[in-house]
Specification:
By secondary structure, this protein is of the alpha/beta class. The chain contains 6 helices and 12 strands. The strands form 3 sheets. Strands 1, 4, 5, 6, 7, 8, 9 and 10 form an 8-stranded mixed sheet that branches. Helix 1 runs antiparallel to helix 2.
C-alpha cells in the first residue's frame, strides 16, 4: 500500500490543517466544514494526477484545442456522518462521479469497550472502477477496514484511494496489516503518534462529526 502524506510538503494545504486543529477557529462550525471541504479539493487535485488521461479535441469559438482529459470517473465513497464535508470537497472536483455512502456506528459494550458495525451501504457497482473512500479521521483503522470489506461486496475495484485528513500511527499500521484490498493508496493530511483508549487521535482535532454538525447524544 502506497502512503502519500501531503502535510509533509510545504503548501497552503498546511494552513487548512492548522485551522481545523485550532481550538478557537474550529468553534465556527461553518468554517470547520469549509476547511475540511477545501482539504478534500486539494486531495482531489492530487489524486487526479495519478489517473489515466487521453487527448481529446475540443471545439472553441475560434477553432480546435487538444486537451488531455481523464479517461474514467471515480466512484466517491464516504463514511457517514463525519465524512460528508470531505466527500463534498472531492465531489466539487470529480463533479460527475457516482457516489457511495456507508453508515457505521460504535456499538458500546458493558465493559466500556466498543465494536464498529456497518449498518447500511448505498453504492453503485464498483467492478473495475477507481474508488475514492474518505473519512476525516483514521484512528484505530477498524472502521476503514470494515468499510472496505463492505465496498468489495459491490464488485472488484480497479484501485482504491483512501483519504484521511488526520491518521494515527496505529490506524495506518492496522490498515497495512488488515486491508482486504491490496491495490490501494492511502492519502494523508497529517500523521499523529498517539491515540486515547476511546480511539481519539492525539493531538488530533477532537470529534470531526460533532465539530461539523453539532454534538450528538
Amino acid at each position: 500500500m502506497e502512503i502519500i502524506n501531503l502535510g509533509q510538503q510545504n503548501s497552503i494545504f498546511n494552513h487548512f490543517i492548522r485551522e481545523i486543529r485550532d481550538v478557537n477557529i474550529q468553534k465556527d462550525s461553518m468554517r470547520f466544514r469549509r476547511n475540511i471541504e477545501r482539504i478534500g479539493e486539494v486531495f482531489a487535485y492530487e489524486i487526479s494526477r495519478k489517473m489515466e488521461y487521453e487527448n481529446k479535441d475540443i471545439t472553441t469559438p475560434l477553432g480546435i484545442s487538444t486537451e488531455s482529459l481523464i479517461i474514467e470517473k471515480p466512484v466517491l465513497a464516504t463514511i457517514l456522518r463525519a465524512g460528508l464535508p470531505l466527500h463534498q470537497g472531492l465531489l466539487n472536483y470529480f463533479d460527475r462521479s457516482d457516489n457511495c455512502f456507508i453508515s457505521a456506528f460504535r456499538k458500546h459494550n458493558k465493559g466500556g469497550d466498543f465494536e464498529i458495525k456497518i449498518e447500511y451501504l448505498s453504492s453503485p457497482s464498483l467492478e473495475k472502477k477507481i474508488v475514492i473512500l474518505c473519512d476525516p479521521m483514521l484512528a484505530s483503522g477498524n472502521s476503514m477496514v470494515l468499510a472496505m470489506e463492505a465496498l468489495l461486496s459491490k464488485g472488484n475495484p480497479k484501485h482504491i484511494h483512501i483519504v484521511a485528513v488526520i491518521a494515527s500511527a496505529e490506524g495506518i499500521q492496522c490498515l497495512k496489516e488488515n486491508t482486504p484490498f491490496r491495490n490501494c493508496t492511502l492519502w494523508l493530511g497529517a500523521q499523529d503518534s498517539e491515540m486515547t483508549s476511546q480511539s481519539y487521535i492525539v493531538p488530533g482535532l477532537g470529534d470531526a462529526g460533532d465539530l461539523a454538525f453539532g454534538e450528538k447524544e
